[in-house]
Amino acid sequence: MFEPVYETTPDAVIKVVGVGGGGGNALNHMVRSCQEDDIGSVEFFSVNTDAQVLRSSAVRNTVQIGAGITHGLGAGGDPNIGYQSAEEDREALTNMLSDASMVFIAAGMGEVLVQGLLQLLLKLQKAKVL
Question: What is residue 63's predicted lDDT score, i.e. its pLDDT?
């Protein structure tokens, strides 16, 4: 008689990344609305150049980028600063996303940090680093 084989597959690794002030605020709202532990295999990360914003984040996993460029402050509305900040911490961003099955990015409209970060993430994906 034929017996079906049930293979267990690992859960997908889902990461939600809040970028900049708008994305960080969105994640803060998500995390406060439903406890992070209740979401299972979803991991939340807040990415920002602004150290003060990250210190007050409700998200456990925070990644400060561009500290050498912005000195812990914001990108000042300059997309080039956003890109340079992401490039400066390319390794941290790569490590953050390397095992992800799916990545969702939350960001505010017109966030300069997002423009720079997305450019870098697309480069890394194209180079098959992610």
Answer: 97
| Nearest residue to 45 via CA among 19, 17, 25 | 17
Tell me the domain boundaries of the chain: 14-126
CA 122 to chain centre: 13
Q: Domain 14-126 - what CATH class?
A: alpha beta
Check: CB of residue 86 under 8 Å from CB of residue 65: yes
Distance, in Å, from the CA atom of 18 to the CA atom of 39, rounded to the nearest integer, reads: 16
* Stated pTM of the model: 0.84
Torsion angle in degrees (nearest 10) through CA of 105, 16, 95, 120: 0
Say how far apart CA 106 and CA 103 lie, in whole Å. 10
